[in-house]
Specification:
With 86 residues, the protein is mainly beta. The protein has strands at 10-16, 22-29, 38-39, 67-71, 77-82. It has one domain (5-41, 55-82). Helices cover 0% and strands 33% of the residues. The protein is extended and about 45 Å long. Residues 29-38 have a biased composition (Polar residues).
């Protein structure tokens, strides 16, 4: 049976260190008793024999009026415009 994260109501637990850096993100299904939290940062192999590796993703949130930046190789950035208001 395949289980999709969208099909399960769950509580999200975010563990951070003293500086606020995220160490781990876990979920616990709502209404479950005694079920351990499932780590979202652990590697899960959905298909036996699949050796596909996912690259780390990062998310940058821009606020209205803030300058947009494009990441370049070597962590150099280039400003490409501003975020418009809605």
């Amino acid at each position: 049976m395949s289980r999709s994260p969208q099909d399960t109501d769950a509580d999200v637990i975010v563990e951070t260190d003293g500086s606020g850096e995220v160490k781990d993100v876990k979920t616990v299904a709502n209404g479950s008793t005694g079920q351990p939290a499932e780590s979202l940062t652990d590697c899960h192999q959905d298909r036996p024999g699949d050796t596909t590796m996912l690259e780390a993703l990062s998310l940058r949130v821009y606020f209205s009026g803030e300058m947009l930046e494009t990441l370049k190789a070597g962590s150099q950035t280039e400003q490409v415009g501003t975020v418009g208001e809605r």
